[in-house]
Every structure is written in structure tokens, then in C-alpha cells.
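Subject: complex prediction, re-run

Hi both,

The earlier run crashed halfway through, so I resubmitted it with identical inputs.
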Amino acid sequence: DVKVTQSSRYLVKRTGEKVFLECVQDMDHENMFWYRQDPGLGLRLIYFSYDVKMKEKGDIPEGYSVSREKKERFSLILESASTNQTSMYLCASSLIGFNEKLFFGSGTQLSVL
Amino acid sequence: QQQVKQSPQSLIVQKGGISIINCAYENTAFDYFPWYQQFPGKGPALLIAIRPDVSEKKEGRFTISFNKSAKQFSLHIMDSQPGDSATYFCAASPSGTYKYIFGTGTRLKVLA
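This time it finished cleanly. Structure:
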């Protein structure tokens, strides 16, 4: 069964901290994505990667960076966490190509105090 | 122009009824329209998807209706069941990209 695993279900951090959110997929997928989910705003794309060491900005990349050193792992980095980054973060993966099915992890609820 | 507008925000339906969720878009470059279903504590999962060369797609109790000229598409859930209670997101993908633009979501509750 396909699986996208996010390292933490809940995370509480302080303003200004550097935060790492980790995502691992076991499906040998080329594409990986980080979305942010907020009530009333739906899912918004932060960054995506279509290959190892390749990344592209999504719609809301400000305040975030990403790292993909291995095909199965995609990390989201909050360089200096702020309260407006309190949110549910969802990682997803898909096969190479357009219009492929997204497989989502269960999400990380991040609270920045 | 990149937005996908989804309505209603929430929906309550009696068991056995029809649930209808609507989405509208403006960007004619969108060429793929999936619907995702999300249960509490879980990530979204693909439910059904359609391309603009067809007007309707049915999978079991779930049907997508697509109106290309009006730039609208909708999800119909026939014979709605309490187990269908979830949040539903429509989405659209611009041609030639890996990106998906998601709607704001509809929280569906089906009463037993």
C-alpha cells in the first residue's frame, strides 16, 4: 500500500525558531509537494520538487524553503517561524508527469507561539 | 485568474439525499479537474477526476458534471451516506504543469 509519512502529527514551536518538517514516501515517486491547509482557504502550494535537488516555488513560498537530497524525502524548512505560519502542513507525492494522482500524508499541525 | 471558487462552504444532507458541490474557474488553461475527499485526521485522497473533453463522469454514487462554456464543474453524491461525511475539495490543473489549484473546501455532513 502506498504511503506518505510525515514525521510529526503535532508540533509546537516558538517564534523565531528554525523548524523542519519531514516527509518520506515509499512509492518511488518523482514529484513531491508541500501544501498548507487553512480553514476557508483550502490547500495552497508552498513548494514542489520534480526530481532530486530540483525545486520550484508554489503560490506562497515566502518564509519557507525546501530540501530534497534523496528521492524519497522532501523537507520543508521554516527559517524563522512566525505566528502566521501556524497551520496544517500536508506533504504529497505523485508519479512523474502532469495530472497525476496526488498521494497525501496525514499532515502536521504546526503551532507557532 | 488562478482561482477556483467552491460553494457551499458547508452542507448538511439527509441520508439517501443528493449532495451537490459546485466549483467555478476562469483560467481556460485548466485541463484537468479532480475532486479530493478528506476525512478528519487524514490527508485528502483522490475521489474522481474529469477532463474538459467530456461533460460527465460517473463512478459509483459519485458523478462529476462539467460545463466547459460556463467554466463550472460540480460533484454530485447520490444516495448520500453518513460515511460520506467529510471535506471535499475541487481542484484544477493548468495544462503542462505539475500544479493543482484547490478550492476552499466544502464540509459535508450526512445525517443518519
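Chain B has no helices and eleven strands.

- K.
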